[in-house]
Design brief:
180 residues; mainly alpha; Arc Repressor Mutant, subunit A; Tetracycline Repressor, domain 2; 9 helices
């Protein structure tokens, strides 16, 4: 793919993710217009709105998997890995703000997402085992709270950098859930 075509595709996908998050009925034509490309360009790449959505969801899922990999959840010190993970997920949520419930109707996508959740939950258990998160909390509490905090900071703090937002989330999680 030529560099300009790749840029156009990326722009269409990220614009589509943003517009569809705001209005799930957004048309391909409106997405093309907002992305600054001709709608025929989009239709040449995507036969339908559903195909565009599937590609947006795939791109988000790949970005989540990359953020998990980049965080080095198994190797890095817990607080370092936690910060890397949160910062990466905040960036993903800002770039790909799509409705996850629609994404999870596909069995293959749901299984990939569940594998990511399991990997993060395993890491959070490591955080408990190493004393970064209190052991007496209900099982799964940190795993339920972490995505809520990342989504909250994305919605409530749009002007905060990804790093600053990760600082806030990690500080809230570790100090709020850390040893007394």
């Amino acid at each position: 793919m030529r560099a300009d075509a790749a840029r156009n595709l990326e722009t269409v996908l990220t614009t589509g993710a943003r517009m569809l998050a705001a209005d799930p009925t957004a048309s391909i034509s409106s997405i093309a217009t907002e992305a600054g490309v001709d709608r025929r360009t989009v239709y040449r790449r995507f036969a339908s709105r559903e195909e565009l959505l599937a590609t947006i969801y795939e791109s988000r899922l790949e970005a989540v998997e990359q953020a998990i990999s980049d965080a080095r959840l198994k190797e890095a010190p817990v607080t370092v890995a936690l910060h890397r993970y949160v910062e990466g997920i905040i960036a993903v949520n800002r770039k790909w703000p799509v409705d996850l419930t629609r994404m999870l109707t596909d069995d293959a996508v749901r299984e990939r997402r569940n594998a990511s959740v399991r990997e993060v939950n395993t890491f959070l258990q490591r955080a408990v085992d190493e004393g970064a998160i209190r052991a007496e909390l209900p099982e799964g509490w940190a795993g339920a709270l972490l995505p809520q905090l990342t989504h909250l900071v994305v919605r409530q703090m749009p002007d905060m950098s990804d790093g600053q937002a990760a600082d806030l989330v990690v500080d809230t999680l570790v100090k709020g859930l850390g040893p007394a």
